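User: Predict structure, ligand FE2/S2 (inorganic) cluster.
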Amino acid sequence: HRPTGIHHNFEVAGMVDSTSGLVDRAIFTDEGLYQQELRRVFAPSWLFLGHVDQLKKTGDFFTTFMGEDPIIVSKGKDGEIRAFLNSCRHRGARVCRADYGTTKNFTCTYHGWTYDLEGKLSNVPNVAGYDENFDTADWGLVEVAQIDNYKGLIFATWNPSAPELPDALGGAKYYMDAFLDKDPEGTVVVGGIMKWELDGNWKLAAEQFATDWYHVNMSHASALMVLSPTGKGPKSEIANTPGRQFHDEQGGHGAGFPTHPKSRFDAQKVHEHYDYGFLRERLGDATVEGPMTTGHGTIFPNFSYLPINGSIRIWHPKGPNKMEVWAWTILDKSMSPEVREAQRLYNLRTFGPSGIFESDDGENWSEVQSISNGFVTNSVALNLQMGIGSEREDGVYPGTTSELYSDAAGRNFYRKWAQLMDTPAWHEEPNE
Ligand code: FES
Ligand code: FE
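Assistant: Predicted complex:
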């Protein structure tokens, strides 16, 4: 099922310069570059689909997107989780229009072709109308090339030659463990999946979660004041907070975290739940004092997370100027129902669609996007120069780190992005 068609590729090497820290604003607005992103950034990469907790028994399914491609994720009779393109092989309609549910099969409502949980074409109305060359075995749903989960988070890729998921996550796994591995029993999804649209290119959000702590004191000043136990807000609470910022050169991932965020903990019921002695033994002091706290990170290209909130999210691209945010609350399995509910509400109030932090961030991205199409505006470079030269191994946190207030992970994110944009993907290799 090799993608074919006429594609024009543009060289972007000159548009993002990770050495000088300059980024061309057209990468957020150009339709041609956006189409190239779908082919060369999204199609070859591992993309987040959902949490294993969403598929408990045979027949459970949910739908999502990989890039702009609609996807069904289902649990088969053999207990395996599979992911398929949600598009009928006949004339292309979606074969499943529900967000999630339980089913025996997927029946296309256009002409009635039916697919089983393993994606095989199992029934064709008036099959006698086709000649003997028609074989239903040739017309199953298009399946992803690789699917796997890391501690409950399901990822998939169309790319048969992508490195296996643990290798693709690389050095970011240590930082993900800070929220996925606190509980020996793992995590569960609490509440529904929140979905909302934002004006803004998906990279603005992904980049920020990888690299941007600089905005916190300014953009979230009022929110921090509300949460602050003294009511004084950022000046007394987190200004000049020490911390580190990690980036994974191979994968393009990034994460930043304060190392003394005690004041941010107090609004959370989760304190009563955690046995910090146990966590220090399980994850190590550095994790408990750093990435387990109020940090946030991005797994390249468009999956982001906030450990202490239990918020995970995907920034679905919907054209160069729009994204759709899907956000889950995932919490430790062994949390009591009371702590779970308190954490769910805490996450909703801070990083739900109208949360006091989330709405600050969305407003910034939409503001930047709303003026980016101006001709002159579009030709003035953006600055990601903070912390140039500060990248090093710090001896405490694994991999390459920089200061908390730095653009290092952002420069790395765009370096990886440009590298993929300028490299023919597996599907572009010429047929022999
Ligand atoms: Fe699905 Fe015709 S498009 S059966
Ligand atoms: Fe923010």
